[in-house]
Amino acid sequence: MAEIIQEEKGGGKKKAKKHAPHIDMTPMVDLMCLLITFFMLTSALSKPKIMQIILPDAQKSNEPAPRFLTSRTLNVVLGPDNKIYTYAGSVKPEEYNNLPPLTETNYSATGIRQTLLDKNRTLAKKIADFKEQVLTGKIVLSPDSVLSSIAKLKKVDDTGPLVLIKAYKGSNYGNMVDILDEMNICGIALYMLVDITWYEEKMVETAAGITSTAKAAPAK
Amino acid sequence: MPKIKLPTKSPHIDMTPMVDLFSVVLTFLMLTATMRPTEPAPIDTPASISEKKTPDANIMTLVLSKDDRVFLNFDNGPDTILRFRNKVLALMGSRYNIEFTPAELTKFEKYSASLGVPILKMKEFLAIKDPKQMAAFQSGIPIDSTDNQLAMWILFTRQVNPNVQACIKGDTKTGYPIVKKVFKILQDYKVKQFNLITSLEATKINIAEIQK
Questions:
Q1: Between A43, A46, A48, which is nearest B198 by CB?
Q2: Average pLDDT over all residues of chain B
Q3: Chain-centre distance of CA A95, in angstroms?
Q4: Which residues of B touch A171 (CB under 8 A)?
Q5: pTM for the full model?
Q6: Cα four-point dihedral sign B169, B51, A188, A119
Q7: For B67-95, what is the mean pLDDT?
Q8: Higher per-residue pLDDT: B3 or B205
Q9: Which of A29-38, B75-84, B119-128 has the lowest mean pLDDT?
Q10: Which site among B205, B206, B207 would you substitute to test the A interface, given the most A Cβ atoms closer than 10 Å to its Cβ?
Q11: B148 to each of A86, A174, B87, B186, how far by Cα in Å?
Q12: Closest residue to B205, CB basis, from A43, A47, A185
């Protein structure tokens, strides 16, 4: 391809060249290497990843709100300045004037993740064991059935917490993705994004030291 | 003992097959590489552990920038011959009583970056020749309840392409209220399952931590 072969002309007067002229192709190869590396890296790394979320049906106003077991509920309120506030259970109407304190934590591995793992120990261990078995080859499954098996483990679980994620208006989108990601990391079976209530806004504002902008209690 | 004299000859490696192979690979990569248009707003996506890849076609991306503007982008479907972008804009036009010429529709089809132009300014926007002027029109798609153009775009995109999947691409610093509004619109228009576009960050929890 790159070698040029000169045909000898008849006559025999000229002295025939013994070797075909060689073109030094090293710079070309260098350039091609660079281009290939560039294209390979850009095409392989450009694909962003996606995290799937499923929202429930929009709630109709005439339907009663679903009831939860408060003993398993963990409320996670995403606060301003990358802080998370948590409290367990729920706030009863008689506590509105004396709101329970919030526990402050953050998005690091020692913060909210520790809290969630503490609550979700049994299930997280089951999932981790299962993943370990798949990795070491004790169980051979296709990636899809691994996912569905984990989903099944989560479905039958009745020990883990029910996490209600509430975002205060000062939080941002990154906080929301982070907390959803933590749910995946810790293998929480039940979690949902819910609207923040007025008393939770008040609790966050007290804890963060912001002058209250929350609406007062609705008239009885 | 007499020395053995080796004939001095520069070692020449024939690189022709290597060059051949390289050019084939290079051509392949160049042809498959997709041109990425310049986005109207820089988006710094948050990281997650999710390893799922974004699908190639049938996606509708809602871009939420950190200055609370909402942009929309959707593709032409699995095959460009389907020309979904054209049809959606024509439907939008009929909803807002704007007649788009075939030339304008084609221009819209070719414009592949995210779109944040209110529909009433779309005609003006499509008439621009200089791409540098386009930024001035990207004020974000209105999402107020009185003039919810985003909802209309979502509705028509889903009407034209029923297989479309919604993706949300938000900046880490986008305020939560705008995210909530967009979620509400999606929920109202029966888009219950959607994807959040994130960048990959591998995190693993060790079992020891759990057993403690």
A1: A48
A2: 84
A3: 35
A4: 175-176
A5: 0.76
A6: negative
A7: 86
A8: B3
A9: B75-84
A10: B205
A11: 35, 25, 20, 12
A12: A185
Q: Within 13 A of B170's CA, how many CA atoms are on the CB side? A: 25
**A121-150 in b/e burial notation, b at 16+ Cβ within 10 A?**
bebbebbbebbeebeeeeeeeeeeeeeebb
- Specify the DSSP class assigned to residue B143: B
Q: What is the predicted pLDDT for the residue at B156?
A: 92
For residue A49, give the nearest of B52, B170, B187 by CB distance: B52
In B39-175, where does DSSP find H-type helix? 84-95, 102-110, 122-127, 149-160
H/E element, B192: none
- All residues of chain A having their beta carbon less than 8 Å from the beta carbon of residue B202 are none
Answer yes or no: do B48 and A51 touch at CB < 8 A.
yes
- Whether A66 has a pLDDT exceeding 80, the answer reads no
User: Which pLDDT belongs to residue A220?
Assistant: 39
Query: Which two three-digit tokens encode residue A13?
Result: 């007067």
